[in-house]
Amino acid sequence: MSGEVLSQSEIDALLAALSAGEMDADELKKEEAEKKVKVYDFKRALRFSKDQIRSLTRIHENFARLLTTFFSAQLRTYVQISVVSADQLPYEEFIRSIPKMTILTVFEVPPLDGRVLLEVNPNIAYAMLDRVLGGRGVSLNKIENLTEIETKIMSNLFEKAFSNLREAWESVVDIDPMLIDFEVNPQFLQMVSPNETVVVISLNTQIGDTSGMINICIPHVVLEPIIPKLSVHYWMQTQKKAREPEEVATLQKRLKQTKVPMIAELGTSTISIQEFLQLSVGDVIQLDQTVRDPLVIKVGDVPKFIGQPGKMNKRLAVQILDVIKGEDGDDE
């Protein structure tokens, strides 16, 4: 039986039917057993687990936020982009689902093999083009008559936008997206075999008063080398690799050889700007400290020690008397 919850009246009617013999309990069990058999379509092979699809969704939710920021700056208008769905389906089915004439940009993402397809609804693409050219962002669908200038502007815009995918994927793999093709007819674009499984991430896009979809099609062959990194175990892993003793010793040795500036402050004084402007060679500034007061010794800009001035081997020196404690009582 299905997992839905029955109302009390439905339960009473079911019990009454069983009691009256109108319904056989054995038939119910048989029907339930038959429902457990699921039809598997080998043409629509599911090669990604739900866990991996969720990981891809998280990655592209970050990508959607980056695109929102990028297009808002480029188009100088209200832009909102969000992930609607992430599905796996055959490449042929994806091609049939998109308009016959649309904006298609193909990217390579080295070091991963294969190519990634970015499909932008013509309404969105023309609204972007209109904004870039100084318009109000009005959509005018004349995709079959793209001029060379319009093609160049659009390809440059989407190439810059897709470069944000590098930042979105950096937690999994370092990629370098590169535009390699621009097309308007999906029938002329054959990236993989028709039955190849692809992941399609759909982004709902709002630009001013115009809305539409941006679809990212990623073939299985592209993601195959990094599929283990898309599991929840990879994302939830917090254990850090312990450093080898030799590495720790090397770091300590180099750290001890690091040079830091030390400053012995002889004293301070407060004067007015008028007095400061009138200073000249030979003038004397009276310090607030006396010669008997200890000096503050700084490491960088941080007060670290208390000392007293003196001489050592006929050279000026400072003797450390005490260590300045931090606010929490520990050494800074």
Automatic annotation (TrEMBL):
GO cellular component assignments: bacterial-type flagellum basal body; plasma membrane
Localization in the cell: Bacterial flagellum basal body; Cell membrane
Keywords linked to the UniProt accession: Bacterial flagellum, Cell membrane, Cell projection, Chemotaxis, Cilium, Flagellar rotation, Flagellum, Membrane
Family (UniProt): Belongs to the FliM family.
Alphabetical list of NCBIfam families matching this protein: fliM_switch (TIGR01397)
Tagged with keyword Membrane: yes
Protein name: Flagellar motor switch protein FliM
Main location group: other
GO molecular function, one term: cytoskeletal motor activity
Keyword flag Cell membrane: yes
Species name: Anoxybacillus flavithermus
Gene3D superfamilies given in the database record: CheC-like, SpoA-like
Pfam families: FliM, FliMN_C
Membrane topology of the entry: Peripheral membrane protein
A GO BP annotation: bacterial-type flagellum-dependent swarming motility
UniProt xrefs under InterPro entries: CheC-like_sf, Flag_FliM, FliN-like_C, SpoA-like_sf
Domain of life: Bacteria
